[in-house]
Predict the structure.
Amino acid sequence: MPISLYNTLSRRTEAFSPLDPERVTMYVCGPTVYNYIHIGNARPPVVFDVLARLIRRHYPTLVYARNITDVDDKINAAAAAAGVPIGQITERFAQAYRDDIARLGVAPPDVEPHATAHMPQIVAMIERLIANGHAYAAEGHVLFHVESFPAYGALSGRDPDELLAGARVEVAPYKKSPGDFVLWKPSDATLPGWESPWGRGRPGWHIECSAMSEAHLGETIDIHAGGVDLTFPHHENEIAQSTCAHRGKVFARYWLHNGMLTFDGRKMSKSLGNVLQLHELLKKHPAEALRLMLLRGHYRQPLDWSDAALTQSVRTLDGWYGALRDLAGVEAGDAVVPEAVEAALCDDLNTPQALAEISQLADAARRASGAERGKAKAALLGGGALLGLLQDDPEAWFRQGNPGETVDADAIEALLDERRAARAAKDFARSDAIRDQLKAMGIAIEDGAQGTRWSVVKA
């Protein structure tokens, strides 16, 4: 079935048709590594991880690049505050980013370019822009001249004057126009810098992604994705400089943007004190429940984060894993992706519909009998896998507490053995007392045809 995607540039849903079906290319803007990311920063890698899984089902090769911005004024400030070179800051938080999103089930990209490793490519692109008349050097800076690119503003859908009126634009005497943006800026002895034809300096943020995308994916790529907050100015500026550096060639054919996260209906911000770091959330909640939370809303819409919704995600996974636990002894063979789940994702990555289909698959698995049980299990596992869910062993899911909690399985099994003996002796008072003791320990027990099973009640 064909994949359709909403293209921010055209403002309509389009059938996805890659430039080269044998080599699909996708670039997703990655983190600026000066601190741990917040949960909103985790939405793009999770959402576009699902897109990568879907594309790989349809095409033989996907080259997926997600960059690391490891030179930036925020990084410089963090390094100065800590009294260490920027490399110590960036290496620490780049690895923390990789580790944290890996726990969310996000597969590594095929390419992870670092800005500091691409200075020759950045300088070369800036030189081409100057030669083509789209950039100019002034007082140690190099700036892109926005007025030289008539299509500026097409991605965000507003004219340049309106864009500039709503943005924080640095007014500097060396600018030809207020909207001209920095490609290269000077570095003094206290700042990291690289030699260039314009003196020792460092790149502007926007040029980094253009140069890295060109280096690894080519002059024209199929998909460029990121958060909606990057539409202007970052992606708008990428289009301008890449198109002009490549003498008019299309930079990206499909632009995808995910919506922002809110917290109990309010925008996440440091000033409100409601920024939730992914690193901290992973210490308190099952990683797969966090992933499910990030997928429960359509990627283009805002997503409200709440404790109640997170609890519901845990309960939803309890239900799905419960269906799989009931089928523990059933041979499923290879997992099969159900057509309804794939159809939902092919429809502009409609994860809410895909999740609804998985709930129906779990219900069907509970009702299945005979030979249908293996097919139901394979469908549930296959649908979950396409979304990066149901990747744990069902028994392990139920026997794990929240991260950081210690579960003494041997002690629990000993109490259950004592309870079984009490029931056999018809000492129901002792049996009930043990159940209450387990409940106080946060352990739920279930008596059934398969014997007594226990699970940790997650917060």
Notes: The first strand starts at residue 4 and ends at 7. The mean pLDDT is 92.
